[in-house]
Write a structure and sequence with these properties.
- The protein has 315 residues and is an alpha/beta fold.
- The protein has a single domain, classed as Spore Coat Polysaccharide Biosynthesis Protein SpsA, Chain A.
- The protein is built from 12 helices and 13 strands.
- The protein has a 5-stranded mixed β-barrel with strand order 8-11-9-10-12. A two-stranded antiparallel sheet has the order 2-3. Strands 7-13 form a two-stranded antiparallel ribbon.
- Strand 2 (36-37) and strand 3 form a beta hairpin.
- The relative contact order is 0.15.
- Residues 11-275 form the Nucleotidyl transferase domain.
Length: 315
């Protein structure tokens, strides 16, 4: 492990170039990152998380048909003027918030060559400084300070940092998986010795899944530039991190922060619906009413599936 680094993390990279095929046809014309989770698009939760961690410079890696992302984080003067005329300060504040979270920049990936390639696209913007990478499918509860803890771990241990979550054995094949060893004096930070992308349960080195938060040393760019396509024919960030984990050169070494807080997965349709419900019952305006209705509905014949009617929707 290299010596600790105290460079501030001031920039975040959010890959958002995916086609969102799991959400078709909804994502045919609307970027999946703009699908609402209660009353905000999923991507706004991610940018708000970066802002809470003191990061005010965000680069989104996008692709075709993602113009709605740029519009959302821009000012909407006509709408703001209409709300001002109405005197609706509450909605005016909410509309302006997305544009006030920091400086949000955009660059196109061009070709869908994988997460590692998307991160490499940020090289000119990031420069020679550590940076965060936040994936939009994982929403971290605002009461948990995972990203802040990861930045702190980077300052203490140097190198790069990944977020780790214990998952059941039958789910580990959905994630990158880390082999780890303890670090003396640490309880929630471990040293990563190896990483495997989406292993079979029998081959997984642990039950620690790598979830969508990273704090990366800028030396990762040189490695990514030389990384060959791996699983799925894509340039895998996991492969580059595996090389960094074994390196004793400046910027080398990888540690993991074990996360035990609340994570909302919006990666597929069922988990997306669960995220909407979980965040909906916590909403300051409608949460109490929604929770009461949900409990009442769950106890009804319809909620128990006992009303005897066929309500299956056509796919």
């Amino acid at each position: 492990m290299t010596s600790p680094r105290h460079d501030r993390v001031t920039k975040a990279v959010i890959p958002a170039a995916g086609l969102g095929t799991r959400f078709l046809p909804a994502s045919k014309a609307i970027p999946k990152e703009m699908l609402p989770v209660v009353d905000k698009p999923a991507i706004q939760y991610v940018v708000e998380e970066a802002s809470r961690a003191g990061i005010d410079d965000v680069l989104m890696i996008t692709g075709r048909n993602k113009a709605a992302l740029e519009d959302h984080f821009d000012r909407h003067w006509e709408l703001e003027a209409a709300l001002e005329r109405k005197g609706d300060e509450h909605k005016l504040h909410r509309v302006r918030k997305s544009a006030d979270l920091g400086n949000v920049h955009f660059v196109r990936q061009g070709e869908p060559l994988g997460l590692g390639h998307a991160v490499l696209m940020a090289r000119a913007h990031v420069g020679d400084a550590p940076f965060a990478v936040l994936l939009g499918d994982d929403l971290i509860d605002e009461r948990d300070h995972l990203l802040e803890r990861m930045i702190q771990a980077r300052e203490q241990h140097g190198g790069s940092v990944v977020a780790l979550l214990e998952v059941p054995a039958d789910q580990i094949h959905l994630y990158g998986c880390a082999a780890v060893e303890p670090i003396e004096g640490e309880t929630d930070v471990v040293r990563v010795t190896s990483m495997v992308e989406k292993p079979d349960a029998a081959d997984a080195p642990s039950n620690l899944a790598v979830i969508g938060r990273y704090v990366l040393d800028p030396s990762i760019f040189d490695v990514l530039a030389e990384t060959k396509p791996g699983r799925g024919g894509e340039i895998q960030l996991t492969d580059a991190l595996l090389e960094r984990a074994a390196s004793t050169e400046p910027g080398g070494g990888v540690v993991g922060v074990k996360f035990t807080g609340k994570r909302y997965d919006t990666g597929d349709r069922l988990d997306y619906l669960k995220a909407v419900v979980r965040l909906g019952v916590r909403h300051r305006d409608i949460g109490d009413d929604f929770r009461s209705w949900l409990i009442e509905w769950a106890e009804s014949e319809e909620g128990r599936g006992e009303d005897g009617e066929q309500r299956h929707l056509r796919h």
